[in-house]
Design brief:
It is found in: Cytoplasm. It is built from 14 helices and 8 strands. The protein has 304 residues and is α/β, with parallel strands linked by helices. It has one domain: Rossmann fold (3-Layer(aba) Sandwich). The strands form 3 sheets. Strands 6-3-7-8 form a 4-stranded parallel beta sheet, with helices on both faces. A two-stranded antiparallel sheet has the order 1-2.
Length: 304
């Protein structure tokens, strides 16, 4: 597959869409190719915390919850920088923009909290060797693909999404960035049996946020009073985060994310897929889920 020459246009106000290249069978952004060796050879530390998700599965939400827990609910500390600066995205590599999540992470003092969208088989081996704690969030395929489609529309470095119908076909075939949703959620589900992984579900976080925040705190060995847990819940509600420039990605340069096309934080609900799917599309994806998650014990709710 052709590797894209990743660069801004002459007016520097727009950016070329990336293409996809396979790395060990997983489609990733072509811009990442030259940075793959540093990513694969990343040196995790024993006290690292990695937040991993399939894209648009509640990543920023769990990041902010974790940061709030780590800082005892201190709002000022959590407003020290945008979320993408507080928790480096180790998959990120754009040489022409001097962007390297690995370099950002390497420059951080311990303990670090890091972010990745990598499937389990592409995670840098040092995370397993160091037994670093990992929090994984999974979201039902229908809402996930809708959110991912709208993200592709506004994230100008991502591949062109095409129509909704085209994007859904590519998603179901695993021909989207970071690969198959089915492989991703199943791979991490199975990895939790032999590694310190807290596996959460987006739908549980929506239905009972207090309970899930408490789970995260316990996983991080942090004890917080009820009043602080309530503060974390209120601060990380969707509308609050959507209005917060430290979490809503409006501080990211507009050449990367165009919020006039679609906001980075769009709906944050369970069931919005019903406004996009036809009955036939819904049934096809249900069938695929039944087939590809069979025997895993994984089940997802598509409405609350």
């Amino acid at each position: 597959m052709q590797v894209m020459d990743f660069e801004t246009d002459e007016d520097s106000k727009s950016i070329k869409h990336s293409t996809l290249v396979d790395i060990n069978g997983v489609p990733l952004l072509s811009a990442m190719i030259n940075g793959w060796d540093p990513i694969w050879n990343f040196k995790a530390r024993p006290d690292d915390l990695l937040i991993c998700t399939y894209p648009k599965a509640g990543t920023t939400w769990i990041q902010e919850i974790v940061d709030m827990i780590q800082h005892g609910g201190d709002l000022q500390k959590c407003a020290r920088a945008p979320i993408h600066e507080r928790m480096p995205f180790i998959d990120l590599y754009y040489s022409k923009f001097n962007l390297s999540g690995v370099e950002e992470a390497n420059a951080m003092a311990s303990p670090r909290t890091l972010k990745s969208h990598l499937p389990v088989q592409l995670l840098p081996p040092s995370f397993w060797e160091q037994k670093s704690k990992i929090i994984y969030v999974a979201r039902n395929a229908k809402d996930n693909v809708v959110s991912y489609f709208h993200f592709h529309r506004m994230a100008l470095a991502m591949p062109e999404p095409g129509t909704w119908e085209e994007f859904l076909e590519n998603f179901m075939a695993g021909k989207v960035t970071w690969g198959s949703w089915f492989d991703h959620v199943r791979g991490w589900w199975e990895a939790k049996d032999h590694h310190p992984i807290l596996y959460l579900f987006y739908e549980d976080m929506k239905k009972n946020p207090g309970q899930e925040i408490q789970k995260v705190a316990e996983f991080l060995d942090v004890q917080l009073p009820e009043s602080v847990l309530n503060q974390i819940f209120q601060h990380t509600e969707f509308e609050c985060m959507k209005a917060n420039p430290m979490t809503n990605y409006t501080m990211m340069p507009s050449i990367f994310l165009d919020h006039t096309i679609s906001p980075f934080m769009r709906k944050g609900t369970v069931g919005n897929w019903k406004e996009h799917f036809t009955v036939a599309q819904s049934e096809r994806l249900d069938d695929l889920c039944a087939q590809l998650l069979k025997g895993s014990g994984l089940t997802f709710r598509t409405e609350l």
